[in-house]
Design brief:
mainly beta, 5-stranded mixed sheet
Length: about 100
Amino acid sequence: MKTQDTPFVGGPLDGRVLPVLLGITGHPPKTYRVPVPDPAGGPDTVLVYRRVDAGRGGFMQQLWKYEYAPDAAPGRGPKWPWSGPRRQSATPPERPPSPDE
C-alpha cells in the first residue's frame, strides 16, 4: 500500500506528520478518525480530522493536510446506497375495468 506523509493541524496531533494510507485514487481519506482510549476504562474518545488542500508539490502532485474538527461527529463510515432505510414495495395502481369485461 502506498502512503503519504501528511501534516496534522490543530487538536492533540498539532504539528505531527504521520504516514496516511492512500486510496485507489491516490488520495488520503476525506476524514481521519483517531480513537483515544479512556484511561478510566470508559468509552474511547474519537478525534476527527478533515482533509483540506495544502497546495501543489512537484509535477502535478496534490498535497493534503488534516485540520482538527472538534465539532464533527465521529460518524459510522461510508454511506452506501443499499444501507439506507427500506422502501416499501410499490403496489401497482388500480386499473379501471375495461369495456370488454
